[in-house]
Amino acid sequence: MHATTDTLATTPATQGGRSRWLALYTLCAGMLMIVLDVTVVNVALPAIQDDLGFTSSSLAWVVNAYLIAFGGLLLLAGRLGDLLGRRNIFTAGLVVFTAASVLCGLAQTQEMLVIARFIQGVGGALTSAVILGMIVTLFPEPREQAKAIGVYAFVASAGGSIGLLAGGVLTQAISWHWIFFVNLPLGVLTAVLAVKLIEKDKGLGIGKGTDVPGAVLITAALMVGVFTIVKPAAELGWTAPRTLALAAATLVLLAGFITREATAANPLVPLRIFRSRTLTGANLIQALSASGMFGIFFLGSLYLQRVLGYDALQIGLAFLPTTVVMGLLSVKYSEKLVMRFGPRRPLIAGLSLIVVGLALFTQAPVGGNYFVHVLPVLVLLGLGGGVCFPALMGLSMSDVKPEDAGLASGLIGTMGEVGAALGLAILATLSATRTAGSTKPALQALTDGYHLSFAVAAAIVAASVAIALTVMRQPKPASEVEDEEELLLEAA
């Protein structure tokens, strides 16, 4: 990987072995705060609605305000990390996220909560966009990098399940305000540890990539695009005039951005990075797999709640097997699989397991039994995620130059966020449409709607398997690369 040959990357890599792993855990703690926040809030939405008097339609803004800011700023935040220093952007994001969390907890009006959630999204984007780039810089050696990315992938993908449990406990035991207040000690501690454990990187300098028009265009495009997905598309339908108008505006802004980047002397996003077949393929797979997985966790929770009658705490406990299995594979075995087989084969195998799990979920009946109809699905999703996500994260950064690491990290995050929002909107709309048009009893109509969404999600993830098979190239396993390097050294 390029990270060993550039001065931008070598400074953090000079940290001692123990301090590098402590730095990794600090970065993952920051990521865990961001991931937990999404599902913690989802569980607490009914309590927030009752307390602040939200209507069903306005309640969506508690989630949407965060998603619009987060999804809209990820790409820009990643590039700012390259220019201004990734540790600077990471710690600045923690400060903004933590302060906004306190404002959310103190909110006594709908307007205050929605505004604070938007600011939280800004902080979340700044924090999470640069983490993967910092990890590949800290761990340039292939074996350690694979293990470190496995830890990160577990936190990024399985943390949401922990959030379901934490949200249920905090909301039921204390109040919804505390799902935000708990971020204060966590955020302060993580920021202090980041300054202490992560060596400061200088960055390229703002003069190397100042592109204000490009920044405005891509941020506006992503914000309008995410808004279109989570609001008019989900509520009015994909063919509604307002949806089509906003979708057209998004495309115009994207076209303007691409034109600007192709002609700017110092583009915000150098288009040359998309020449990498590996990077482009990894981002497509990220968007598709996120579309299927995020929507299923949301709709699967609804199936447990509305069809099987689970409460918030029971839902959190129900999803724990996914977290446990994914964590075991990501942290303990993913590095060994990548070193033995290379990243492409585990990626294909893991995605295929997810497809099987989603297909199996289409058989869950109205009177479903958790151990028969739900647990096998969650175990398969955990197995698939634990195998494929670390490999995917590694592939997404494998062809990236050190000066573009923050940009590539922000890009893979953006594709996941936009893919998740798009997938959720599509799957939720399909489910609701099937249920509304059914003449069957209420619970059966609900179940049929969920079945349709599970089947479509399986098809979406299957498309990512096709991309992995046709677009992604199989790099040599790191063990073979290390053997070749040793032979060359001996010959020299």
From TrEMBL:
Transmembrane segment boundaries: 21-47, 59-77, 89-108, 114-139, 151-170, 176-198, 210-230, 236-258, 279-300, 312-334, 346-364, 370-395, 407-430, 450-471
Location(s), subcellular: Cell membrane
Highest taxon above the source species: Bacteria
GO molecular function: transmembrane transporter activity
Major subcellular location class: membrane
Keywords annotated in UniProt: Cell membrane, Membrane, Transmembrane, Transmembrane helix, Transport
InterPro entries named among the record's database cross-references: EmrB-like, MFS, MFS_dom, MFS_trans_sf
Gene3D superfamilies: MFS general substrate transporter like domains, Multidrug resistance protein D
Residue ranges annotated for the Major facilitator superfamily (MFS) profile domain, each copy included: 23-476
Pfam families per the UniProt record, alphabetical: MFS_1
GO CC list: plasma membrane
Topology versus the membrane: Multi-pass membrane protein
NCBIfam families hit by this protein: efflux_EmrB
Protein name per its UniProtKB record: EmrB/QacA subfamily drug resistance transporter
Upper lineage: Bacteria, Bacillati, Actinomycetota, Actinomycetes, Propionibacteriales
